[in-house]
Amino acid sequence: MTVFDLNQLQTFLAVADARHFTAAGAALGISQSTVSQHIRRLEAACGRQLFERDTHTVVLTADGTVLAELARDIVGLSRQAADYFTDSAPRGRVRLGVSDDLTLTRLADLLRDVGRANPTLSVELTVGLTSLLYQKLDAGRLDLVFAKRQPGDDRGILIHRERLAWLAHRELALGADEAVPLVLYPTSSITSTLAMEALNGARRPWFVACSSETLAGLRAGAQAGLGVMAQSPLLMRAPGSDLVEVDGRAALPPLGEVEFVVLGRSRRLQGAPAALADLIIKKGPGLWA
């Protein structure tokens, strides 16, 4: 089996690009005689002539053209391997869970920063309900979660506090004594729980007018004028949004704030999850800007 010498392949590519032995040697910092020696040995290893050459020109043969394509791949992969094993940057895969409402923020900018800061890091992104993300984290199916803090759970590092708002289509009219038509998640969620607790505490009647497992579905229901939802004010800034904050005439109770945190499977993170968590801690507060 023929084994190609990497130095000879690099010299071969330099000659192919420069079309001149002396220029190739100058580019590599080696003598012309060494260039000639490398090419002779490579041709002997291949059993083929790689260049047509005379006193003035150096041109690849058909076999040389084929080898040039293969050699670029071989040399490129060798450099990638060298970069990987000499680089101290975190690498590997991080399974990141992000709550649905964070997609309303500048999350894409954060992910772009992750790629620039750690090009060898692979992020497997899961977007969903906070309660389900916590379940996946505790079951070992996620490495890191960036989401709202669950009531009674003190884990995580605080990134941002956000005031929730009652949102509805701008033409929806709701009187102070009317039952509130709610648009909410059908399963347990932090925002839905806060909405129901606030209304129950104020002894305000309510009913489920529309439900969806996704924030996009809730937004569609509210945009259609089906009811009111307790969500981030950022929804009002979404392209094409007709959502507004319900005015005081509806006499809806205040909702308070939610906290966004980043947490991992243990309080002491290491490796790639730790690097990603550090970036979220640093850049996360700017997502709401």
UniProtKB/TrEMBL annotation:
It holds the Pfam family LysR_substrate. Signal peptide: none annotated. It comes from the Bacteria. The keyword Transcription regulation applies. This is DNA-binding transcriptional LysR family regulator. The keyword Thylakoid does not apply. GO terms for molecular function: DNA binding; DNA-binding transcription factor activity. InterPro entries: LTTR (IPR050176), LysR_HTH_N (IPR000847), LysR_subst-bd (IPR005119), WH-like_DNA-bd_sf (IPR036388), WH_DNA-bd_sf (IPR036390). Belongs to the LysR transcriptional regulatory family. Keywords: DNA-binding, Transcription, Transcription regulation. Residues 4-61 form the HTH lysR-type domain.
